[in-house]
Automatic annotation (TrEMBL):
InterPro entries: BAT_GAF/HTH-assoc (IPR031803), HTH_bacterioopsin (IPR007050), RNA_pol_sigma_r3/r4-like (IPR013324), WH-like_DNA-bd_sf (IPR036388). Gene3D superfamilies: Winged helix-like DNA-binding domain superfamily/Winged helix DNA-binding domain (1.10.10.10). This is Bacterio-opsin activator HTH domain-containing protein. Residues 167-218 form the HTH bat-type domain. It comes from Natronolimnohabitans innermongolicus JCM 12255. The keyword S-adenosyl-L-methionine does not apply. Residues 36-145 form the Bacterioopsin transcriptional activator GAF and HTH associated domain. Coiled coil: none annotated. Pfam families: BAT, HTH_10. Keywords: Transcription, Transcription regulation.
Length: 226
């Protein structure tokens, strides 16, 4: 596992880490055996002492019986369909407490998943912790329990231009580049694919960064004035 130098400003600073992991290391990974063309994106994942109950979206699934595709998956006690919009399915899962893997590491270190996107190739996660110490605990847990992760970035939550709009560096980079390339113009002057290629990330990762960045900006501006 590569050594990543954490920011020096404060060991208690809220920190964001991005990493990848093999498909099999997350309970939902086995769905790609039945549906190799789908993309799974976690809606939100909250560590808890006894249970983790996330919502997640399944996209590009060419089947109406989506629930059956998730049957008999290690670490999953229950998965059910909540809603569907065209070819996107919102699912709800309950994990088995005894499951050993990334879920255990997240709960043990009290780390929150900001983004989790899975394909047949790998899982890409972006997680946030209240301190660098929690990130270090997460990494140590993974090392001690032979949970393979590849860390791609570690950075602090940063305000934008002195204001209280806390975006990650990757969210800020994606928003600014999309704006500069005319992605928000009508008609659009750049596609999601073009911007993702320029950032050397997947379209799913870019879409997730833009969505989370919008959420933070709106939450810090429009919603606070209501």
């Amino acid at each position: 596992m590569p050594v990543i130098r954490l920011p020096d400003e404060s060991f208690r600073m809220a920190t964001v880490m991005e990493f990848t992991s093999p498909v099999a290391e997350f309970p939902l990974g086995s769905v790609f055996e039945n549906l190799p063309g789908v993309t799974v994106e976690l809606e939100r994942l909250i560590p808890h002492e006894t249970l983790i109950i996330p919502y997640f979206w399944v996209r590009n699934a060419e089947t109406e019986d989506i629930e059956s595709a998730f049957e008999q998956h290690a670490g999953v006690s229950n998965i059910r369909l909540v809603d569907s919009v065209e070819d996107e399915y919102l699912m709800r899962a309950e994990w088995e407490q005894e499951y050993f893997g990334i879920l255990s590491a997240l709960a043990e270190a009290n780390v929150v998943v900001l983004s989790g996107i899975g394909t047949k190739d790998e899982w890409r996660f972006e997680v946030r912790a209240e301190s660098q110490e929690a990130i270090a605990d997460f990494r140590e847990y993974c090392q001690e329990n032979d949970i393979p992760i590849a860390i791609t970035a570690v950075h602090a939550m940063l305000p934008i231009q002195g204001e209280g709009y806390e975006l990650t560096e990757t969210q800020r980079e994606a928003l600014i580049l999309a704006y500069e390339r005319g992605y928000f113009d009508t008609p659009r002057e750049a596609s999601l694919e073009e911007i993702a290629d320029e950032l050397d990330i997947t379209q799913q990762s870019l879409s997730s960064r833009l969505r989370r960045g919008h959420r933070r900006l709106i939450g810090a501006t429009l919603s606070s004035s209501v």
